[in-house]
Every structure is written in C-alpha cells, then in structure tokens.
Amino acid sequence: MSGDIIFGHGPDKAGKGTQLSILAYDAFLKGYDVEYYTFPDYSTIGGLLVDQHLRGEKEIPREVATIFYALDRAYQAKYIKQAKQNGKIVICKRSKWSNAAYGQVFLGLPFNDILGIDVFFPDPDIAALIDLPDQVLSSERNRDKKDRYEKKDQTGVIEFLRKAHANGNEISDKLKANYRFRINGRNDLIQVFDNLKSKIYPALKSKPNSSGKGSLLIIGRQEPLELEIVNQKSFGEIVKEYVNWEPQKIEIKTLNDLFKHADIQNRFRPILEEYWSKT
Questions:
Q1: Which of 88, 147, 189, 202 has its Cβ near the most Cβ atoms within 10 Å?
Q2: Whole-structure pTM value
Q3: The domain 4-274 belongs to what CATH superfamily?
Q4: What is the number of alpha carbons within 13 Å of residue 167 lying toward its C-beta?
C-alpha cells in the first residue's frame, strides 16, 4: 500500500499555509489518513539553529546555513517515509526544493551540492506551487518582513520555484516528482482551493478508508520558542531536550482544532463552514 508525499510551495502572501491546511482537513473529511508537516519545524535542534540564524544579524558560512535546514528535515524524514508506506497523504509546507531555491539564489551554492545535502529527505509524488502575479509580488515586497531572507528581493527564488514546478528545464530535470503544477493564488479562497484540489485528488495513489473515517495529524512546532525561553535554558538542558526529541503531534478532529493549530486566519472560518456544509 502506497501513499503520497505532497510538497507545497509559494511566495509570501500567496496563502500556501492556508491552502495546504484546508487541503489536509478536506482530505481528512473524505476519509483519508493525513499528516501535515511545516518546515522549519521548530521542535528540532535543526529548527532551533534555523531560528537563531534567521533572527541573527551576523553571517555564518553559507554551507552551514544550508545544513541547518537539511538537519531540520532529516529529523522528520523517517516519519514521512513511514507514513507514505502506510498509505497516508503527507503534506509538506516547504521542502528541500525550498532549500535549493534559497541556497542557490541567496547563498550562491552549487545546485548539485545543495541537493546532496538533502539526500535523506524523500522526493515528492506531487509538487504544487501556489503563485502570485509579478505585479502583486512587487506590491507586497518588504511588507511585514521578519527574517533575513524575507527582507530581500524574492524574485530569484520565485523564478527558481516556477521552473521547478514546470517540465523540461534545467531545474525541474533534477528535481524528481511524478506530477508538478502551478496555480494562481490571487483568486478568492474557495476558487484557489477548488483549483488546487481538482489537480491533487485525481493524482493521488492514497485511498480513503473503507470506514469513511480519516485521521489528521499536524506534526512539528510551527512557531519558534520565544528567545527569552531559549536563553533561560542551559546548554545541557537544550542538548538533553533535543537529543531525546520526539515529534510534536497534534490530532485534528474538528474545525475548532484546525483553527487553533493550523495556519488559517479566523476571518476564513464562516467561508469554510459554509463550504464544507455543502460538500
């Protein structure tokens, strides 16, 4: 029995977190078993290092920065592979493709070297890019930027991801996926989601449970710990905590659970309640 690994990417403000969270819950309602991962996962030592790097003002060697991200994903790789073997749908918000994009564009690392660093992370069955028109990307640039990369011009990263989600170019030829596509994230919430699911569901190998009952786990910590909390810990405490690491798993059973733990704004709740009441 084989499941599916789905990579989801998109520029800031494209709503990829919202759309992927909705997809995960929709599949759960349809009787699929689903695991949803967000990277960076701030519950791993890799995620902690990524957080410190993103917040920091001092530069570190570019190879080290790329390894931080790969280390974060390596923690989850075996769980993702196992979930696929068990017939589940695995949805990843960001992936090793993101690392390749940022590593090449912002750090100037050779493409093949970056892929080699992430060799332990599985390839996707499906890769989706929730994109925005160039004029929208320009208008959103530098608004509410938080970390060292969000403050920079994202044009090169977006161009990389567009090539990654197309066929027959120098980037997509090196990034394996059974099916890849790009959709416009500029439309309203439901239009974008209907477009997304119209491409995802026909491509799935996963099957819904015969009982009609699905399951949904959100795995990993989506937000970093406050720096004050991290700084209060001794080095020994941090090492012990992360060496004994187990993935943080939150079971989602209701719409309340979804809005509490997923990356969806409350203003979308009435829209989604109405949508799912009709399906």
A1: 88
A2: 0.90
A3: P-loop containing nucleotide triphosphate hydrolases (3.40.50.300)
A4: 5
